């Protein structure tokens, strides 16, 4: 089975470290990371992603923009928004507009793990040979 594609969009070092560490525990995902808005736009135009984890604000762009672009390319793409406490209302708006869920910074590894497990089960992204081994 081909690995499921995750695009991780973030430009803050401590968040990148925490989430990258967490994503390494999901071997059935192939992770692409960028904190550059122009590169992210190109990536989203070039290929579909199964899951997009994005900061609500990135220099030169909005996580909402990336959410829409990801779902244009793959209508089943699951978007998870990461937002600071002062942006919680914007993150909630993103969920109302189609994002799967959101996480407040600093992202708790347990919370992200829980969301990813839910996504893999709800969206059928778990490995076929071991759906409970996430």
Count every beta strand, where a strand is a DSSP E run of 2 or more residues: 7
Query: Could you say which structural class the secondary elements and strand pairing correspond to?
Result: alpha/beta
Main β-sheet description: 5 strands, parallel
Q: How many separate structural domains?
A: 1
What's the CATH class, please? Alpha Beta
Low-confidence stretches: 129-134
User: Radius of gyration in whole Å, from Cα?
Assistant: 14 Å
What CATH architecture would you give? 3-Layer(aba) Sandwich
**What is the CATH topology classification name?**
Rossmann fold
What's the helix count? 5
Beta-strand content bin: 15-25%
Side by side, the strands of the main sheet go 2-1-3-6-7
How far apart the termini lie comes to 15 Å
Judging from the principal axes of the Cα atoms, what is the shape?
A: globular
Fourth-tier CATH superfamily name: Response regulator
Q: Give helix and strand order, one letter per element, not per position.
A: EHEHEEEHEHEH
Task: Estimate percent helicity.
Answer: 40-55%
Mean pLDDT: 87
Can I get a quick summary?
With 134 residues, the protein is an alpha/beta fold. Helix content is 41%, strand content 23%. The protein is globular.
What does this protein look like?
Helices cover 41% and strands 23% of the residues. It is α/β, with parallel strands linked by helices and 134 residues long. It has a single domain, classed as Response regulator (Rossmann fold, 3-Layer(aba) Sandwich). The protein has a 5-stranded parallel sheet with strand order 2-1-3-6-7, sandwiched between helices. Strand 1, helix 1 (13-23) and strand 2 form a beta-alpha-beta unit. Helix 2 packs parallel to helix 3 (63-73). The longest helix is centred in the C-terminal third of the chain and has 14 residues, at 109-122. It is globular and about 40 Å long. The model is unreliable at 129-134 (pLDDT under 50).
């Amino acid at each position: 089975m081909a690995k499921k594609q995750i695009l991780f969009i973030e430009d803050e070092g401590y968040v990148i470290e925490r989430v990258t560490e967490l994503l390494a525990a999901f071997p059935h995902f192939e992770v692409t990371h960028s904190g550059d808005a122009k590169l992210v736009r190109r990536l989203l135009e070039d290929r579909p992603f199964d899951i997009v984890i994005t900061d609500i604000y990135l220099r030169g762009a909005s996580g909402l923009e990336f959410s829409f672009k990801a779902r244009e390319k793959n209508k089943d793409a699951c978007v998870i928004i990461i937002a600071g406490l002062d942006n919680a209302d914007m993150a909630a708006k993103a969920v109302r507009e189609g994002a799967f869920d959101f996480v407040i910074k600093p992202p708790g590894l347990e919370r992200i793990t829980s969301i990813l497990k839910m996504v893999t089960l709800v969206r059928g992204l778990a490995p076929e040979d071991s759906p409970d081994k996430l």
